[in-house]
Amino acid sequence: MSESTIRPFFWRATRLFGEKTVVSRTTDGEHRYSYESFGHRVQKLAGALSALGISDGDRVGTFGWNHHRHFEAYYGIPLMGAQIHTINVQLSDDRVAHIVEDASDDLLLVDPGEPLATIERLWEDLDSPDQVVVMAEEVPETELPAVGYETLVAEAEPVSEWPELNEDQPAGMCYTSGTTGLPKGVEYTHRMVYDHSMMVTTPAALGIDESDVVLSVVPMFHVNSWEFPYAATMAGARQVHPGASPSAAELVDLIGSEGVTLTAGVPTVWIDVLDELDEHGGDLSSLERIVVGGSAAPEEVTRRYKDEYDVTVEHAWGMTETMSIGAVSRPKASMAAASREERLAKRAKQGLLSPGLEMKVVDEDGDPLPWDGESAGELLVRGPTVIEEYHNRPEANETDFESAADGGWLHTGDIANIDDDGYIEIVDRVKDVIKSGGEWISSIELENQLMAHQDVTEAAVVAAPHERWGERPLGFVVPQAGADPDATRLRESLVGTVPKWWLPDEIRISETIPKTATGKFDKQSIRERLDQPDLPHAPGRQRWPIISRTLQWPMRTWSPGRSGRISMGK
Ligand code: AMP
């Protein structure tokens, strides 16, 4: 029996839909070719990688945006038996260094511009790899041992026969920052990519078809761009890759000019696109569906796309650990007669689990909670597209995964209820992290930086709900005895130590910070009281008055969408 690998995906697109086009926006301009030409270049890329010494079982890192060269790497690397490891170009230098070191990448494929500059800064401190390939027409001036992608591909001998692959061998890798501490490596086998692509393609999830024209705005460095490069290829759909940091105006242009029917990305992207349409108009007549996930899709966004553009927002939930999409929210057929408001309310939930998965919500003792739409507990999921362990992280494996004997469940870290129709609704998070515009911010790292300040004795950072970004960091600081820190200066002291978009929107100086019985910051209590700066003593909790100044930063201090750079979560 043949193995479940990505090889038949490649075969199907290149042999049955060879004439279909793949369009890319690149730093060298627009690029357009057919699946047939894509296939030839993938064979040449694999030949080139072999010539560079890459072989079965090796790991090749990629550090770039969505374009045809990266798309070719999605196939060339795993088809030759190696593993593609996609690295987030938006992370801070120390995180990128940690990820490249932890994965021991044997080679890096890097975009020109800022990604290449990042690797240049880190190069001296990296043990591996010893060469980079620049994914551009020509190699810009660099001191790195770099070779150009186009030169490599032009000179390579194409691979004519793919090697026999085992379905359990690793095909991909991606790091998650969605939990406390350093990013953790998540590996996907061929079998998992196969299964997840099948799941995504079924109408019960996204229903991708060869008649679709697909534009995934989800970066290729985020959980396989929610599987679109595999699922859409397998389906034989036309594809559009939007390149580095597309602006909302560029996305609207691409949708109109390429006749895009299906697109995907985090809520901020689609809020920016609505703003762009409000200001300058645009043609969305071809567009049928937008998959919105990574953070909760605001109901207003879903409503506006339907009312004003006749576009359906498919609200999706998922994690790096579930290979992205794990649930999609649309009303069941039995709701056909339900009111518009009831149907919209269902779409606002995180949805129905995708085929192939199972779930439960449990209380603190691990006991299952009823599906009553109210009882909230941690969401646990399992299935063939859910990872069973992290790379190199035995301590996290202990806490995040149940053993096979205990059911093999993944602890998602999401607090959810399930209603009697089976729809998941995420209401909170156990994980001590903040998700802003689809990207993670570590509250603990911000707290450590604040507590390193000489005037600060304690600092807690929590996620404050935000209309546009989903969440933004809000800091609480207890001054050292006798000190009188200024909130503006404290905030400024973080500049340079964390990425600019991590800076808390507001820092409040406080007398104390509430703690749990075990002495940890009681973040849940803080979050519950964000709007009530001077609360009476809560039973069982410490008094926590906000004393003097609060610093309210304009919410658009840092606006990636406006500056042309869109933050595109997974
Ligand atoms: P990541 O591993 O970075 O993809 O992040 C996964 C996490 O993002 C989930 O565990 C949730 O906390 C959050 N998330 C993803 N999709 C949604 C959604 N539709 N609504 C609310 N939170 C979401």
List keywords for this structure.
570 residues; alpha/beta; Rossmann fold; GMP Synthetase, Chain A, domain 3; nine-stranded mixed beta sheet; seven-stranded mixed beta sheet; 26 strands
Could you explain the architecture of this structure?
The protein is an alpha/beta fold. Among the domains are: 175 residues, ANL, N-terminal domain (Rossmann fold, 3-Layer(aba) Sandwich), CATH 3.40.50.12780; 108 residues, GMP Synthetase, Chain A, domain 3 (2-Layer Sandwich), CATH 3.30.300. The chain contains 17 helices and 26 strands. It has a nine-stranded mixed sheet, sandwiched between helices. α1 crosses α9, α2 packs across α3 and α2 crosses α6. It starts with 6 loop residues before the first helix and ends in a 20-residue tail after the last strand. The chain binds adenosine monophosphate. The site of adenosine monophosphate has 21 residues, from β14, β19 and β20.
Can you identify the CATH superfamily of the domain at 1-17 and 31-188? ANL, N-terminal domain
Helix content: 25-40%
Rounded average pLDDT:
90
Tell me about the largest β-sheet: 9 strands, mixed
Question: Unreliable runs, pLDDT <50, ≥5 residues?
Answer: 534-570
Radius of gyration in whole Å, from Cα? 24 Å
Q: Give the beta-strand count.
A: 26
Structural class: alpha/beta
Stated plainly, the CATH topology of the domain at 1-17 and 31-188 is called Rossmann fold
What's the end-to-end separation, in Å? 34 Å
Ligand kinds: adenosine monophosphate
Shape: globular
Strand order of the largest sheet: 2-1-11-10-12-13-14-15-16
| CATH architecture classification of the domain at 1-17 and 31-188 | 3-Layer(aba) Sandwich
Tally of alpha and pi helices: 17
Percent in strands? 15-25%
